[in-house]
Specification:
The complex is a heterodimer. By secondary structure, chain A is of the alpha/beta class. Chain A has helices at 11-23, 34-43, 60-69, 87-96, 108-115; strands at residues 3-7, 27-31, 48-52, 78-82, 100-103. In chain A, helix 2 (34-43) runs parallel beside helix 3 (60-69). Classes of the chains: A alpha/beta, B alpha+beta. Chain B: Its EC number is 2.7.13.3. Chain B: Keywords: ATP-binding, Chemotaxis, Coiled coil, Kinase, Nucleotide-binding, Phosphoprotein, Transferase, Two-component regulatory system.
Chain lengths: 120, 746
């Protein structure tokens, strides 16, 4: 089963996402900010990254462009979890190399059905 | 305390079904914008959602939440009530009923209608006016399944009337860099294939010659036909993230001429395999040979690959998906099961017997090794495998009993909070290694000793804030609890940064209580060790282990009764650290096999300090103390096990004996043995259960040859040995009689 890196500074949302993913059998690596995520990404092979945008220390956009610099993350889907569905946000994400976005709040079913489009 | 919510579920279901009826009749009669009826529907949805949330039916909560939100918008007149909306809401009622029925029957609702309606509701909420008008159609046939839906699709579609197309034609020309965005066409197509019958033509015309081909880029263009009654928005959603990175046209398919090329199915599988791994595995075995590459190119450009997923395949796929669902469900159900501890103990016992049988067979095998017979080799191979499998099995079974030490550690944050505020101290508790696992029985027995050590650290180790500041430390003291595995043991450390042990006071106290004599020279570590001696604590023993009044000797005794030991290091003004070493399990033990007069015994490896040859000269007779041996600047009493156990052929000849230096109960001793044999893991059989408690023995085990070997309890043996030595007269020890009897019975 795929390994998913979940990055969010809000523990409650992260827990919900992690719980949902684990229930579905995915392996999950957690990080509370971009910096932590980046160091974990260097250690573990991930098949998908789900990251919040607004986070302390390193935000999701920067994380995304940093990840794309790693050879092992060249093709890895990176989804941004965002509260705003603006085209400006999407543009920023796309420029950083994001694969797609998920607009918060979302329920576990949406999350899982959306994931199927980018991860096996 | 937890309340079993399950008892309220029947009531909840009853209420909810009533609520659905209210919703249904309300919706049917809602011709005009009747505020009271809308309110009633809203309230019904709201209470179903609330109840479902409480009882953990998240699917119902999620579904009803959307309905509720929609009703709320209607109620606030932010949305006009239309017939399409009414139909959608009515089919939502059906879906909620399906979900409730599933909840009632303890099954999972796999009806695709639920997801479909849910998506439509969400779409409506997201601001789209598009409401799929075929919802009524769907509702009429709520028992339909995926495959029948597909088989009947053309009829359905034409009879629906309101749907003027039988699917969507999609032209998808992704940008070359699409893969670099992390998007994956094959997965998108798989998502589309879930909506209905799906036909894909891959156009390879743009694929460059192999030499020019950049494997990281995408050159394919796809024509797709999706025969489905799904909404265009559903199709668009799949392409949501790539719409800026591709040319995409989506047009309705009006006619019904489908060319299902079943012959290309296998082709599809092949191409699928190619697509699965677009980044790397392009067959580039051709290297630099241009002519060859050219021929390949012409071939690869040749015909357009036409692939389809037939209805039959889809049915298969959905059944696979369903069975996966079932597996998943049973997995989540089987995530943990409650099993009586007696069953597990029975299993462990059985495996223990298996280990004995295996080692018996192993011995037979090695005895046969000299025979020149081809079967002997095969036998030994088989025995080797048996050994490996037995070992694995044993490990797995032992793991069942393993629990993370957090079960014990979790008691401490509250305790530290309570005790420290009681004492007016500021303490920060740091826990680490909570996930370290150990045997349940060990865990149950280690709780109280640890509690005592923690209380001790809070009480005596850590200072008050004033004292700490005066000593130049931060006001807040730190208490570290750490657990980790080392070898076959778990190490638990309780470390504080308090004042440390007061060696002067301990010495005085020990003198007072007659534990040491005034002329005894003791190292700092020796003095620290005194706190574990019985009689050191001046406090009165209260009931059992209330945490107060129990001396450290009880802590040490309890830990040693588990086959572990405890030690302390301390530095004045810096802090103290107690280290508890415990075996991971009480069922198996690493032992040293020894022989006395042809009888086998086991010494727990954890108790052994060193095994040495000694000569008679090294043994000094001291009046009143038996014999002593100078072991690293320390005189240790010598215990002749044969004599202690009362074997007849006792010899006083100490010349060149084998001595095992052991440590237990804070004392060292040298045990004279006849023979040292191998080290091995032994399965502990309780003497209490099988016979009765025998002083000096911890338990018994059965060796590979079927012989019973007693496991020495080093601490109590040392005590016995010292008592005996004082009597100076070798005598037949009554324990041996008992042990002999027991061997007959086991």
């Amino acid at each position: 089963m795929a390994t998913i890196l979940v990055v969010d500074d809000s523990a409650s949302l992260r827990n919900m996402v992690v719980f949902t993913l684990k229930q579905r059998g995915y392996d999950v690596v957690e990080a509370a900010d971009g910096q932590e995520a980046l160091s974990k990404a260097r250690e573990a092979v991930c098949d998908l990254v789900l990251t919040d945008v607004n986070m302390p220390i390193m935000d999701g956009i920067l994380l995304c462009s940093e990840l794309r610099k790693l050879p092992s993350f060249k093709f890895t889907p990176i989804l941004m979890l965002t509260t705003e569905n603006s085209s400006e946000m999407k543009q920023k994400g796309r420029a950083a190399g994001a694969t797609g976005w998920l607009v918060k709040p979302f329920n576990p079913e949406t999350l899982l059905s959306t994931l199927k489009r980018v991860v096996r | 305390m937890s309340i079993d919510l399950a008892q309220f579920i029947p009531t909840f279901l009853e209420e909810s079904f009533e609520g659905l009826e209210v919703m249904e009749s309300g919706l049917l009669n809602l011709d005009t914008e009747d505020a009271e009826t809308i309110n009633a529907i809203f309230r019904a949805a709201h209470s179903i959602k609330g109840g479902a949330g409480t009882f953990g039916f998240t699917d119902i909560t999620d579904f009803t939440h959307v309905v509720e939100t929609l009703m709320d918008e209607l109620r606030a007149e932010r949305r006009a009530f239309t017939d399409t909306l009414k139909n959608l809401l009515l089919s939502s009622v059906d879906c909620i009923r399906l979900l409730l029925e599933a909840a009632r029957d303890n099954t999972e609702c796999n009806d695709p209608q639920v997801d479909q309606v849910f998506k439509q509701l969400e779409m409506v909420l997201a601001g789209g006016e598009v409401v799929l008008t075929h919802a009524d159609n769907e509702k009429a046939d709520s028992t339909h399944n995926l495959s029948s839906e597909n088989d009947n699709l053309p009829e359905n579609v034409s009879s629906a009337g309101e749907i003027n197309n039988s699917g969507w034609h999609i032209e998808f020309k992704p940008a070359q860099h699409l893969l670099m965005t992390g998007n994956e066409p094959i997965l998108m197509m798989a998502a589309l294939a879930e909506c209905g019958e799906f036909l894909v033509h891959a156009c390879t015309a743009n694929v460059p010659a192999l030499l020019d081909l950049n494997p990281e880029e995408l050159f394919l263009v796809w024509d797709m036909d999706l025969y489905s009654d799904c909404d265009e928005a559903v199709v668009r959603e799949v392409f949501e993230w790539v719409e800026d990175d591709c040319e995409l046209t989506i047009t309705p398919i009006v006619d019904d001429n489908r060319a299902v090329n079943s012959q290309s199915d296998s082709l599809f599988q092949e191409h699928l395999a190619d697509f699965q791994n677009p980044q790397g595995d392009v067959p580039v075995s051709v290297q630099d040979e241009a002519p060859v590459a050219a021929t390949i190119t012409t071939e690869s450009v040749a015909p357009e690959a036409s692939v389809s997923i037939t209805a039959a395949e889809r049915a298969e796929m959905s059944s696979v998906a369903k069975s996966q669902d079932n597996v998943r469900k049973s997995q989540s159900d089987a995530g943990s099961i409650r099993v009586g501890i007696d069953k597990i103990d029975g299993l462990i016992n059985r495996v223990g017997e298996l280990v004995i049988t295996q080692s018996m067979l192993g011995q037979v095998g090695s005895e046969l090794a000299d025979l020149e017979h081809p079967a002997v080799d095969r036998l030994n191979d088989g025995l080797l495998q048996l050994e490996r499998n037995t070992r694995d099995l044993q490990e797995e079974v032992m793991r069942i009993r393993m629990l993370p030490i957090s079960f014990v550690f979790n008691r401490f944050p509250r305790l530290v909070h309570d005790v420290s505020s009681q004492l007016g101290k500021e303490v920060e508790l740091k826990l680490s290694g909570e996930q370290t696992e150990l045997d349940k029985t060990v865990m149950e027995k280690i709780g109280d000793p640890l509690l005592h050590l923690v209380r001790n650290a809070l009480d005596h180790g850590l200072e008050t804030p004033q004292e700490r500041v005066a000593a130049g430390k931060s006001e807040c003291g730190t208490l570290d609890l750490n657990a980790y595995h080392q070898g076959g043991f778990i190490i638990i450390q309780i470390k504080d940064d308090g004042r440390g042990l007061d060696t002067q006071r301990i010495r005085e106290k020990a003198l007072e209580n007659g534990l040491i004599s005034s002329d005894q020279v003791l190292s700092e570590a020796d003095i620290h060790d005194l706190i574990f001696l019985p009689g050191f604590s001046t406090a009165v023993e209260v009931n059992g282990l209330s945490g107060r009044g129990v001396g450290m000797d009880v802590v040490r005794r309890n830990i040693e009764s588990l086959g572990g030991h405890v030690s302390v290091t301390s530095e004045a003004g810096i802090g103290s650290s107690f280290t508890v070493t415990l075996p991971l399990t009480l069922a198996i033990l690493d032992g040293q096999l020894i022989k006395l007069q042809q009888e086998a015994y086991i010494i727990p490896l954890v108790s052994i300090v060193e095994s040495i040859w000694v000569s008679a000269e090294a043994l000094n007779a001291v009046a009143g103390q038996g014999r002593l041996f100078l072991f690293r600047d320390e005189y240790v009493p010598v215990i002749h096990l044969s004599s202690l156990f009362g074997f007849e052929e006792y010899s006083k000849d100490f010349s060149s004996s084998l001595m095992v230096i052991v440590e237990g109960g804070g004392k060292k001793a040298g045990l004279i043995v006849d023979e040292l044999q191998g080290q091995q893991q032994v399965v502990i059989k309780s003497l209490e259960t099988n016979y009765k408690r025998v002083d000096g023995f911890f338990g018994a085990t059965i060796l590979g040859n079927g012989q019973v070997a007693l496991i020495l309890d080093v601490a109590s043996l040392i005590k016995m040995g010292l008592d005996n030595a004082n009597k100076k007269q070798p005598r037949r020890h009554k324990n041996n009689d008992e042990a002999q009897q027991m061997k007959v019975r086991v």
